[in-house]
Specification:
By secondary structure, the chain is mostly beta strands. The chain has no helices and 11 strands. Strands 2, 4, 5, 6, 9, 10 and 11 form a 7-stranded mixed beta sheet that branches.
Length: 128
C-alpha cells in the first residue's frame, strides 16, 4: 500500500512560480514511475509529467515543456513539480500518482488508468 500527500499549491499571478511536493509512504521500487496529472471541472484528468524512480528519466506533455520540471528525492521518498512561467490555463487541481507496474515505456504512463495510487490533490490557481 502507498499513500501520497501533495502540498505546495496556491494562488499565483501569471508568470510566477510554484513548487508542488508529493510525499510517498510505503515502498517505491526502482521500476516504479511517479507522475503528475491535473484536472479542471468537467474535464478529464490530464497528464503533466512523469519520472522513473530509477535513473530519473522524465517525460512531459508538450504544453509544459520548458516551464515545468519534475524531480525526485529517493531519500525522502518524494517527487516534486517545479512550475515556472505559470499561465492562467495551468489552473487546476494537481494530483501525484504512482504506477507500480512493470516498466512499459514513456507513453504508457501518460494514461491515468495505468497508475495505482493517487494523492488527494492540491489546487493551483493562476490569475491573469
Amino acid at each position: 500500500q502507498v499513500q501520497l500527500v501533495e502540498s505546495g499549491g496556491g494562488l499565483v499571478q501569471a508568470g510566477g512560480s510554484l513548487r508542488l511536493s508529493c510525499a510517498a509512504s510505503g515502498w517505491i521500487l526502482s521500476s516504479h514511475v511517479m507522475g503528475w496529472f491535473r484536472q479542471t471541472p468537467g474535464k478529464e484528468r490530464e497528464f503533466v509529467a512523469h519520472i522513473r524512480w530509477s535513473g530519473g528519466n522524465t517525460y512531459y506533455t508538450d504544453s509544459v515543456k520548458g516551464r515545468f520540471t519534475i524531480s525526485r528525492d529517493s531519500a525522502k521518498n518524494s517527487v516534486y513539480l517545479q512550475m515556472n512561467t505559470l499561465k492562467p490555463e495551468d489552473t487546476a487541481v494537481y494530483y501525484c500518482a504512482v504506477s507500480r507496474r512493470t516498466y512499459s515505456g514513456s507513453s504508457y504512463y501518460t494514461v491515468s488508468s495505468n497508475y495505482d495510487y493517487w494523492g488527494q490533490g492540491t489546487q493551483v490557481t493562476v490569475s491573469s
